[in-house]
Amino acid sequence: MKKIIAVLLVLIMAVSCVAMTSCGEVNDTVEVEGTYTRDYEGTTLKVYNWGEYISDGGEGSLHVNKAFEKLTGIKVVYSTFDSNEVMYGKIKQGAEAFDIIIPSDYMIERLINEDRLQKIDVSKLSNYKYIDEQYKNLYFDENNEYSVPYNVGMVGLIYNETMVKEAPTSWSVMWDEQYKDQILTFDNPRDAFAICQFLLGIDLNTTDTAEWDRVAEKFKEQKKILQARVMDMVFNKMEGGNAAIAPYYAGDYLTMAENNPDLKFVYPEEGTNIFVDSICIPKNANNYEAAMLYINFLLEPEVALANAEYIRYASPNTGVLNHEDYSLKDNEILYPSEDKMPKTQYFHDLDPVVREYYQDLWKKIVNE
Q: Are 260 and 285 in the same domain?
């Protein structure tokens, strides 16, 4: 009897291994087009990226960093941030040197203005040809010298249809007192204030301090009914049904909706922020050549596809957009048709005096 039980246990374990990615094995093999040297084998590449922003082997997906390590012999040390401002603080402090960072457009513009980035010779990136032309020569890097597009997104309104009486169409629902203690907002000033700016019809990049005062007052009005200001915690709160309304990035909504089908999404009628997150090399990077290999690797069609499927953001990579296996190519949240495209505006780096002014307003409000 014991032998029979032992055999059954072995069979169960074998079946479990097949059902899972495979008994502890990591999916770290990918087909590549570029040529990758092992000249930097044994060196370290330090990568600083947004949380939940790379295919990491979960649910059988490609483990991008492990695949790069296997291909090149370069060890990837990977850490994350949850806002551009947190990332900037770490870069400015300079206590830790990163070889790769992935900020958003306006923060890239600031880093360039402050001479904190190295130039990237895109002619040395064989896969740069896959970057869609519409994401080249953008305002924050007009000559494509300092950044390589990674992902594209827009901010929208996520709501739980079982907790909200009717589908919202406006940012104004975030001030609706019937949803007191059920509303979340961003825990960073640019994103949080932008919602107020759209609602008030104020340019996202205004330099008028009086208009920033109006924005701050509108934000303060919300405080009495707000549950919390969050970044990555939005996943747990919205997926768990612990909040009814939250603004967040469209790609992350798709991930949340997989775990909670009661969650719905809308681009509010007043308009929204569009952004391009791009790969950069900081001025004090210690492993520039390895960083160039890593950038080219991220642009590989199969790698970019794995990231696009896992992260669920819009891709600027034509190798993904034209890939027959790309499941999200017709998703109208990521790729709205012309008639469904919301009004959009990019953030820009603002004059230091204006930036300090709105940051002070933010600190006063959140610390009251």
A: no
4-10 long-range Cβ contacts below 8 angstroms, 24+ apart: none
The structural domain count of the chain equals 2
pTM for this structure? 0.90
Reported in sequence order, the residue ranges of 39-104 that DSSP labels E, i.e. its strands, are: 44-50, 75-81, 100-101
Tokens linked to 263: 């969650």
Q: Based on the domain organization, do 350 and 217 belong to the same domain?
A: yes
Per residue in 136-186, pLDDT tens? 999 999 999 999 999 999 999 999 999 999 999 999 999 999 999 999 999
Query: 230 and 355 share a domain?
Result: yes
Picking from 121, 122, 83, the residue whose alpha carbon sits closest to that of residue 104 is: 83
Query: Across the chain, where does the E strand assignment appear?
Result: 44-50, 75-81, 100-101, 148-160, 183-186, 226-230, 245-249, 263-266, 272-279, 344-345
As averages over each run of 10 residues, the pLDDT of the chain (368 residues) reads 34 39 75 96 98 93 98 98 95 94 98 98 97 97 98 98 97 98 97 98 98 97 96 96 97 96 98 98 97 98 98 97 96 96 97 97 94
- Distances in Å between the Cα of 197 and the Cα atoms of 69, 91, 214, 367 are 44, 28, 9, 21
My answer on whether 73 and 208 are in the same domain is no
Q: Which domain holds residue 313?
A: 25-147+280-334
